[in-house]
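Could you join me in thinking about how sequence relates to backbone shape in a protein? We need material for that, and I hope you will provide a protein of your own picking. Label the sequence line and the structure token line clearly, so we can match residues to local backbone shapes. Would you write everything just below, so we can both look at the same thing?
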Amino acid sequence: MKTEKFRVPALGDLDPIYKDFETRRSLLLEKQTENTRAQRSVEEKLATRPAAQYSENVANLLGEAASGGETEHGLAEKLKTLRAEARDIEIALSVIGRRIEEQSVKANKLVVEASRKEFGRRVAAVVHALQGVAAARAEYDALRYQFEDLDIRWSTLGPMSLGFLGEANDGHVQRVIKEARDLGYV
């Protein structure tokens, strides 16, 4: 039977409050994009029109009001409303950003707890592999010492330098194993 590969859950996978904040932020970002597009559209329309010589009411009294289209004054009011909405969206994004930051501490704890068993399993696997390395190194060193004790010139075999492992009895391997034991993983 095939076992499913462990995947660390995202913060929103385990914390519904965090997930809700992420969703709200996403919706706000979409709204911000729509607002920016709408502002650009209004600004482009305003840029192509000649400036009004008088108010919209005066234009109506003179019979010069735009027929069926948006007036310059209407566009200016629309732009003003869009800009106010953009400021509100920015404030809302700032608030939701702070809420996400605060909630991430709680969500993080949930993810760490949900991953603890798998993390321990993997640390133990590393430790067991390192114990195998330590045993193989001990056998290698025993053979090397026999060559040296018997004054055998064995360099033609291609001696290996295992210095990256640290000292044979108190090196990097032993420190990793000790740390894993101290943390309770083995």
